[in-house]
Amino acid sequence: MLEISEIFNAAAVLKDVARKTAVIPAPALATDCDLYLKTENLQLTGSFKLRGAYYKISQLSDEEKARGVIACSAGNHAQGVALGATHNGIKALICLPAGAPISKVEATKGYGADVCLVPGVYDDAYAKAIELQHEHGYTFVHPFDDDKVIAGQGTIGLEILEQLPDVEAVVVPIGGGGLISGVAFAIKTLRPDVKVYGVQAAGAPSMEKSVNEGKICHLDNVATIADGIAVKQPGENTYEICRQYVDKIVTVNDDETAAAILALMERQKVVAEGAGAVSVAAVMFDKLPIKGKKVVCIVSGGNIDVNTLNRVITRGLSKSGRNYTFIIDLFDKPGQLSGVLNVIADQGGNVISVTHERINATTEINGCSIRLELETRDRDHIDQIREALTAAGFHVLN
Questions:
Q1: Is 293 considered catalytic here?
Q2: Is residue 291's pLDDT more than 90?
Q3: Catalytic annotation on 148?
Q4: CA 281 to CA 263: how far, in whole Å?
């Protein structure tokens, strides 16, 4: 059973290893609460996972260390295990999903571990790691369902209480549940009045479903841009701790997550991966009862692949009304396109691209359609442009 003394011991072990990441104010991200960010995206290896992985490895016996360690991961735990093993002079083999971001795969290798790519998602990598453990006798370092790992993650809770003593609520991303288990246990043990809320991706709500149904549930499929929390089934230990200590679990969809990633970049100059941004998304889109409270969102990681980031920015711009595509039916005669562009210019829209189609199945014989991608300010600006185009006599389809 997890004890608070274990978390304090982990803090002592990690004192010279893990960064005490800053808690920074983020007033631009929420207007109805006093919001702060716990920036674990700036942790060594770019994620909170270093804490649990390093502490677990530090507590292994000499015999366990001699066998080498094996782990499975969506990417961040892999880097923590790789760094921890290298620092302790231990051989490490990490099983990662074949679809893990290239940046995470290469970073894991860079920290000194061998990598085994496994087709599928995290749970498939887990099955492969267990198979290899039995075959070769490695010591298994679980990414979340282990008291030592949970204790390491719980040091974040200790830091939050020290850095912001009057905190009233802490919002935590959930995948398998290791992070929120450690944080919730530490905070509720020391400050039971503080609310602890969990956030999962709508496409991978394994812990939310399990807690709501009162039993551990296994999802057949998971699909989310937040690859770090795409877990089909929570752990037994983490499920029990969440059931006892977490006040509420909510979900956010990929569009909301993308908007949060974009907002963190633009307004806070903070780069977060999908899993790290779900906590902020829950606040931005009013998923939690935190009005008027002093709130800390844990930004759990920043290891987002550059190609993924490009797609997420595009999605986030669309979600926040910063990018919109109009489709307009026109008569096919000179001056029509010019008239449309003049209206858009008068309303302050910026044209990114124009696609002109003279013949398709839906247009009149003497008609055409144009597709205009615009940079816009927000949803109200989009409505303003649409109304102006309609008032000018143009038929706006979208």
A1: no
A2: yes
A3: no
A4: 9
